[in-house]
Amino acid sequence: MRIDLHSHSDASDGTLPPGQVVARAVAAGLDVLALTDHDTVAGHAAAAEAAGDTLTLIPGMELSCRRDGRSVHLLAYVFDPADPALARECELIRQGREGRAEAMVARLAGLGVPITMEQVRAVAGGGVVGRPHLARVLADLGVVADPAQAFTPEWLGVGGRAHVTRYAPDPTDAVALVRAAGGVSVLAHPKAVRRGGELPDALLAELAGAGLNGVEIDHPDHDPAARARLRGLAADLGLVATGSSDDHGDLTGHRLGCETTAPSAYEALMAQGRTART
Hints:
By secondary structure, this protein is an alpha/beta fold. The chain is built from 9 helices and 7 strands.
């Protein structure tokens, strides 16, 4: 089996509708795909309809968390999307994203950029608004050559001229919420330097003690040294080691299936989910 446990659609900051993400996953030869949009399950129904019997679709979500001013992303799988506490927390995160986007648009306007919130919402297409949508507008306006160049101190990078913080839960609280909703959680790309710096090993150990189930190791932003370090930590902490593309469509070059999760790891993760729901 070929298994990719981290992908995004235009329900958050991917560029393709959920159905097209599924179609590309099938074309890439995947047998299992997790749709993990940021802080929303809005794309699940359309993805499930498109998947049919062609592949196994895992309902998922990427929760946006923060610890000590640093972004921490938590992948959640097979949880109850109707769980009141988890749904309420996701709504708070989404509201924080919207308010942050409005504040960043105001800062950009103050820097002389002719950007409006209407432009950002149009790019988001009704999905959860995030910095990538602002970055795409900046590229469309010719302010930067491509969206990736917007994530610098000059513009939207952490601590940058137009950067604004937003509400995000502590990752230990998020792990508990996912667990209470009958799901399992995996720490996403913890050693991806370009995403704001490597997360400390101590945080991974703390989250494992709080009920974290796995850690994303084989990721396009992890070099060989980071992968080796994480494999050792996962073994020591009893965490499932996963691999994923973290595909965002056009923004990442349509890379579904470029990194995958071993079938044994996938089965172990799903077994822990069944235990949590029981």
